[in-house]
Every structure is written in C-alpha cells, then in structure tokens.
Amino acid sequence: MIKEIDDYHQTLYIFYHKLYPDGKFDEIAGLTGDLVTKAKAIMNYPRERLQQRLGDHITRFDAAAKQLFNAIISLKEALNGDDPKKKNEAIESLHTAYQDFDAVFH
Q1: Residue 22's domain spans which residues?
Q2: Residue-wise pLDDT tens for the chain (106 aa)?
Q3: How far apart are CA 55 and CA 32, in angstroms?
Q4: Please, where are the H alpha helices in the chain?
Q5: DSSP 31-58
Q6: Exposed, middle or buried: residue 64 (CB in 10 Å: 0-12, 13-18, 19+)?
Q7: 12 neighbors 98 (Cβ within 8 angstroms)
Q8: How many domains are there within the chain?
Q9: Distance between CA atoms of residues 39 and 4, nearest Å
C-alpha cells in the first residue's frame, strides 16, 4: 500500500468506527475536507511508481480512486442536508468505495 492510502484510511477509520456509530455527523462533516485533500493526493500519486507497483492493474487503481473521490464529494453533499438516511447511505457508500479501492492492492 502507499502512504497516501494509509493517511486516508486513518481519517476514515476515526469517523467510521468512532464518530459514525454515535451519529456525530457534525464532527464527520469537519473531517470531510481532509478526506477530499487526501483523495486528491491518492489520485495524483506518481504514475510511474503506480505502474511499477500495479502493472496492468493501474486502470483498476484509476477507477477505484475516482470512485473514492466521488464518494467523499457525495458524503459532503449529504452531510450538508437534513436527511439522516442520506447521510447514513453516503457514509456506507464511502466505506464501500474504500474497501473496493483497498482491494486493488490485494
């Protein structure tokens, strides 16, 4: 795995396993900007280093990174609304996107 992914996961872990179970949506919203920045860092990881690490799987990386980025943007939008169901769905969608992304490396 790459450092940028570990950085992303550390923040995701805090809100998914510590804040989300308690319904602390305001605190989660406070972390979304950091996740956007970290998702951008993942998407901008040097291509040549990815190619060395992933070979032909680099297209899977690209698709999964884009899905991860889109999921955090969707979460930010959901957290700005008042619908708890949409907030929960967006959080679960982001978590699933991360799991799919992580699978690229395994």
Answers
A1: 3-103
A2: 689 999 999 999 999 999 999 999 999 999 999 999 999 999 999 999 988 888 888 999 999 999 999 999 999 999 999 999 999 999 999 999 999 999 998 8
A3: 31
A4: 3-13, 25-43, 47-54, 58-79, 84-103
A5: HHHHHHHHHHHHHTS-HHHHHHHHGGGH
A6: buried
A7: yes
A8: 1
A9: 8
* The pLDDT of residue 56: 84
Give which of 29, 18, 9, 22 is closest to 76, Cα–Cα. 29
Cα–Cα–Cα angle for 46, 4, 66, rounded to 5 degrees: 70
Q: Write down how long the chain is.
A: 106
Q: State the Cα–Cα distance between residues 53 and 50, nearest whole angstrom.
A: 5
- Asked if 12 and 95 count as a contact pair (C-beta separation under 8 A), the reply is yes
The model carries a pTM of 0.91
Task: Quote the Cα angle for 100-95-27, to 5°.
Answer: 155
